[in-house]
Specification:
Helix content is about 45%, strand content about 5%. With about 240 residues, it is an alpha+beta fold. Strands 2-1-3-4 form a 4-stranded mixed β-sheet, with helices on one face. Strand 1, helix 1 and strand 2 form a beta-alpha-beta unit. It is globular. The C terminus is likely disordered.
């Protein structure tokens, strides 16, 4: 059994898609982010960054020993699950393919994902008077990343050729393009890639997980300081120099 600490967001979908695709037995634990579940001592011990998704694998491979294994950060989770199951990733022994996998995992978690997240904030959650510059800035970066993906898909159906965790990581932030105020009209290969992945039953099950709990603008920066405007105090961190 794997515990999946989850909320129905693009980042949460990544881990849910992989668990659904592999058929691993898992239990989704809904994180009420607007109420501060991510700051509980229990969750911080699993995910020090106070972000979901995170997993706890109660039956890891023997090499890990007898204790459960916890993993935080979506890219690390998908890589862990790919190595655990031997699915949806080239083996490390295939040096070139593994190198490409790592490049695209890092591209997603360092570029496409953060730019999409910031765009979402300024489109949907920032105070009305503070939206314009941030929205224009991150829409440009979001589109730039769509262009990177469009080029990559020129001669292949999926990022690595075969469907893999690289696609699972990148898909959710392309899936919600319309709600971000963006369009795939100038990126036909990305649109086709998105449609192929969206048709997968495992992907559909993951996207439907706790769908009714999505934040559809009801929790914003101007009415929820738990979910937005976080600080070190949220993590119960002590400032440097206090003797701790």
């Amino acid at each position: 059994m794997i515990d999946l600490y989850f909320a129905p967001t693009p980042n949460g979908w990544k881990a849910a898609i992989m668990l659904e695709e592999t058929g691993l037995d898992y239990r989704p634990i809904l994180m009420r982010l607007s109420e501060g579940d991510q700051f509980s001592p229990h969750f911080l011990a699993i995910s020090p960054n106070a972000k979901m998704p995170a997993i706890m694998d109660h039956a890891p491979d023997a090499a890990w020993g007898d204790d459960p294994v916890t993993v935080f950060e979506s890219g690390a989770i998908l890589l862990y699950l790919a190595e655990k199951t031997g699915q949806f990733a080239p083996p490390p022994s295939d040096l070139r393919a593994h190198k490409e996998l790592m490049e695209w995992l890092f591209w997603q978690v360092g570029n496409q994902g953060p730019m999409g997240g910031q765009l979402s904030h300024f489109r949907n959650y920032a105070p009305e008077g503070d939206r314009d510059y941030g929205f224009k800035r991150y829409l440009g970066e979001y589109d730039r990343n769509l262009g990177v993906l469009e080029n990559r898909l020129e001669d292949r159906d999926y990022i690595l050729g075969d469907y893999s965790i690289a696609d699972m990581l990148a898909f959710p932030w392309a899936f919600i393009a319309k709600s971000l105020g963006a369009t795939l009209a100038e990126f036909p290969r990305v649109a086709d890639w998105r449609a192929r992945i969206k048709e997968r039953p495992a992907v559909q099950r993951a996207i439907d997980l706790h769908k009714s709990q999505q934040n559809r603008g009801q929790h914003r920066a101007d009415n929820n300081t738990v979910l937005f405007n976080q600080s070190a105090a949220s993590l119960r961190l002590k400032p440097k120099g206090d003797g701790a």
